[in-house]
Amino acid sequence: MSVTARTPRRRPALLRTLAVLAALATLPIAAAPAAAQHRPEATDPEIGYVDVAAATLWVDPGTDRPVDAKATGNPVDLRAWTDGLSLAERRWLVGELETQALYGTKVTILERRGDWLHVAVDGQPTPRNPLGYPGWVPAVQVSTDPAFARLAAPRSPSTRPFALVTATTTGLYADARRTRRIMDLALDTRLPVLSRHGDAIEVATPDHGPAWLSTADAHVYAAATDIPRPTGADLVRTAKRYAGLPYVWAGTSSWGFDCSGFTHTVYDVHGVTIPRDADAQYAAGTPVADDDLQPGDLLFYAYSSGYVHHVGMYLGDGYEIDAPNNTSTEVSTVEIVPVAEHRYADEYVGARRFL
């Protein structure tokens, strides 16, 4: 964010200053108007909200390719984007992307550069920035609508209950009968609730005004703390729904995951926030002995240097599910494999628990 600099005042002569101060000291002090007492400072960060199904964040602005157009515009078509990428084009993304942020997610705008914004994604903890996971996103994918911000901002008097998408994907509609589809939404999307009518939930959106979801595909909560604490079995059931989904570097959406984006999202939809990246997850979790593994525990793999580069979820009975990186010869998918036969078995460094 570019911040307008304050112009320094000219310093008057000393005697003139003393005279003015003496005069002011004799005046009664009036209370500031209530509205002025809470006026934001010029240095307050600018807040925005993602207004595409999932915004893909880049390491640097303007490095996207023509083949990425379906992921960088508004609207996006992430299924068409990922399905249309060759193996080489998928592998090129490694190191070029940071993460993804779902529709309605709060982002703090750190900098503007042409048609791009440098943002920090709320709800994706990382040691890299206390405000959230950083990266560059096309400005067209972020809304700064103050009306939506008032409804979505935590601890605001206008904050509404929110609908949490629990289906793998679901439609967002312009009408309560759900005949005019606006877009598809991914698991873990959260939007403020305006009303409920029969089998439809009316929600606020950052760019389409009021819209509608099916009650079969979302749950309504007054606050994130009301999401029921999951069991390991709950996490496993959610994770298994994505078996076979293609791997996408930096993916955190139902159209493609990377390893830690997968585990982060599975936990997050159940109300448990863990760090975004595998190395940070390993550092944050409670160590678990190999003979005490329980479903939902996370398994980690590291290079010989000690850097943790991969994470999977333990399913029980000696199996795990994970989103392994694409190989040089094939597109990888979220897969269920015996822990002992995992492709990174020789690099296993331990398990962590977050429940």
Automatic annotation (TrEMBL):
Recorded protein name is Peptidase P60
Say if the entry is tagged with keyword Hydrolase: yes
- Tell me the InterPro entries matching this sequence: NLP_P60_dom, Papain-like_cys_pep_sf, Peptidase_C40, SH3_YKFC_2nd, TAT_signal
Q: Which GO terms describe its biological process?
A: proteolysis
What start and end residues bound the annotated signal peptide?
Answer: 1-31
Provide the family line.
Belongs to the peptidase C40 family.
Q: Which residues form the NlpC/P60 domain?
A: 229-355
Q: Which Pfam families match?
A: NLPC_P60, SH3_YKFC_2nd
Q: Which UniProt keywords apply?
A: Hydrolase, Protease, Signal, Thiol protease
- The question of whether Repeat is a record keyword is answered with no
Q: Name one GO molecular function term.
A: cysteine-type peptidase activity
